[in-house]
Write a structure and sequence with these properties.
Length: 595
């Protein structure tokens, strides 16, 4: 708890410094606090250049942050969240402390000089680096190190966007990928601490000033549902286009990497001259769109321009997030969609701004596949409960359609393109690349469902396993009964719980013979027993047993009595068809103790 509060305080202070740097660099390069609020105007200190100063600003910014990133922290390039996800999934939460400093300067220079990216990715990486550094100083274990990294990410989102709930769920849903009471409590402490610090500095206001909208007709729910489907296509398309442009930039550039942002800044400057609304994060333009100040055709132009400007900024080596651009794209899509349906159905469609809010959450959910974060974030922005129902509908549909269209999100696709699978084994890991069939052991003798609890307790205490499979009278597999479940049942009053193991059997996480060991290990860690039955993918029947000892045996195979190598159950049964099927014993007799 104390460490979580410290991480929250550090991330809150870091967000203040980061936002101050963005404002300072934006004033230096453009002469405005936010150039997107006055697009097309000239630099007050360089009036003779007029709006053409945007041709020079990205080049100068690239000359500053290009060598900085290349020399001190290459992982600070890009949008940052994938690097944090990788650190938690495969590197024990270890992030270099210098990333926080380099990311702060590089992202502030990128945004201040016209880069069309967001600030959520940088602050997530900054907060995560602070959490990792604190964990390293206090010599925290790997589990606590990962938790502190998640706390830093939650605190960064909370302080930057004044959205403490969204910060917590962002850390749970995207960084840790799991929910637990301990992780939730720690993330809440960090998020609240950072939010208090952020509100003291920036005030208790949302980072977007949006008007109130309401659902005025039940038929609008159908229109919102269709918007969710369209938003999923746009979100997935944005992720694909982002890396397509990045590939094109890499293929075209043949010079030194430190010079790439400056050279690419020339192209970005031309785009900013043609469409100055793309300068920086672009929140003022987003607010104007939700208020209905743009025509539908111009909204679609802004949508396409933001996709191109963000992709180009990332492709030339800029540093910044993709969360804010996805909100921008969703607002443009939603407002254009709302304008169109209002023209077709003027008495039913309602205000176009309501579709803008729903589109923001739906496009982000389609791109990042984080529906809980999307719902909570938009709710904290609006404070309107009436818009939550259509928002939830559209976001869930967008997430589902996104699953059908792509196996990766805008974050995981970056890692997969580098040959990294977050659910697979880490590069060079000794454990993970093998199949489960290669390490599984013989299946323990199953318990009949009619076995009474006292007999089951005896068998479990002598079996060497934390659980045993359970079968019915016909030998059909029912699930696993764990020693913990039996002990809890025996601790209850007589008659309070059924006295047979069949009532306590539950299906554990599914592990099959053809599954990679790296994926099975995640199921093994979350299993309530010290082992899991391995199922035949053809019929779902248990054919082996996976335990932590079996997984470790691939590192140092134990020698057999005759000088060979002791083979695992999979070696003795080369295929699931040859393995011994799950059959109940004639009677629940206790096995002979070892030795």
């Amino acid at each position: 708890m104390a460490l979580a509060v410290l991480v929250g305080a550090g991330a809150g202070a870091g967000s203040i410094v980061f936002r101050w740097c963005i404002t300072a660099f934006t004033r230096f390069f453009s002469g405005h606090a936010d150039y997107a609020a006055a697009p097309g105007s000239g630099h007050p200190q360089l009036p003779w250049l007029g709006p053409c100063f945007v041709l020079v600003a990205p080049v100068l910014g690239g000359l500053l942050y290009g060598p900085l990133v290349q020399r001190f922290a290459k992982e600070a390039r890009g949008h940052g969240v994938p690097e944090v996800m990788l650190a938690v999934a495969q590197r024990g939460g270890r992030i270099s402390p210098k990333v926080a400093v380099v990311k702060t300067l590089a992202s502030a220079l990128t945004i201040g000089s016209g880069g069309s990216v967001g600030r959520e990715g940088p602050i997530v990486q900054i907060g995560a680096a602070l959490g990792s550094t604190l964990g390293r100083v206090t010599r925290a274990g790997e589990g606590r190190m990962k938790l502190l990294v998640a706390c830093g990410a939650a605190a960064g989102i909370s302080a930057t966007f004044n959205a403490p709930l969204a910060g917590v769920f962002f850390a749970m849903e995207l960084i840790l990928g799991t929910f637990s009471a301990e992780a939730f409590g720690a993330a809440v402490l960090a998020s609240v601490t950072a939010s208090v610090i952020g509100r003291a500095a920036f005030g208790d206001v949302a980072f977007l000033d949006l008007p109130d909208f309401h659902v005025e007709h039940l038929a609008q729910y159908g229109l919102f549902a269709l918007l969710g489907v369209v938003a999923a296509v746009v979100g997935v398309g944005f992720a694909r286009f982002l890396y397509l442009v990045e590939d094109a930039c890499g293929w075209l550039w043949r010079g030194p990497e430190w010079l790439r942002p400056a050279a690419g800044g020339l192209v970005l400057g031309v785009l900013l001259l043609a469409l100055p609304e793309m300068y920086g994060v672009g929140y003022p333009v987003l607010e104007k769109a939700t208020e209905g100040q743009y025509a539908a055709g111009f909204l679609l132009l802004l949508l396409a321009g933001k996709m191109l400007a963000t992709s180009l900024t990332i492709g030339i080596g800029g540093s910044g997030g993709v969360f804010a651009p996805s909100l921008f794209i969703g607002a443009m899509l939603g407002t254009a969609y709302g304008t169109g349906v209002h023209t077709l159905l003027p008495t039913t469609a309602g205000a176009a701004g309501a579709y803008a809010l729903v589109g923001m959450g739906a496009v982000f959910a389609g791109a990042a596949r984080a529906p809980i974060t999307a719902v909570v974030m938009l709710f904290e922005l609006t404070g309107e409960y009436s818009i939550i129902l259509p928002m939830m509908l559209a976001i869930v549909l967008s997430t589902a359609v996104s699953h059908l269209l792509s196996a990766d999100t805008v974050y995981t696709l970056k890692l997969r393109r580098r040959g990294i699978d977050l659910k697979g084994p880490a590069h060079g890991a000794l454990i993970g690349g093998q199949r489960v069939a290669d390490v599984m052991e013989h299946l323990p003798s199953p318990l009949p469902a009619a076995t009474d609890l006292t007999a089951a307790a005896n068998l479990l205490s002598l079996s060497g396993h934390g659980g045993l499979p359970v079968v019915d009278e016909g030998g059909a597999y029912l699930g696993v009964v764990t020693a913990q479940a039996v002990a809890e049942a025996l601790a209850e009053e007589p008659g309070a719980v059924p006295g047979r193991v069949g009532s306590l059997a539950e299906p554990p996480p599914s592990v099959t013979t053809d599954q990679a060991l790296s994926q099975a290990v995640h199921s093994l860690v979350s299993a309530p027993s010290a082992g899991l039955p391995v199922l035949d993918p053809a019929n779902g029947e248990p054919v082996g047993w996976l335990s932590p000892r079996g997984a470790l045996r691939v590192v140092h195979p134990s020698p057999a009595p005759h000088g060979g190598v002791r083979r695992t159950g999979a070696d003795r049964s080369s295929s699931p068809a040859d393995a011994v099927p799950c059959r109940p014993p004639a009677a629940p007799t206790a096995p002979r103790p070892p030795g």
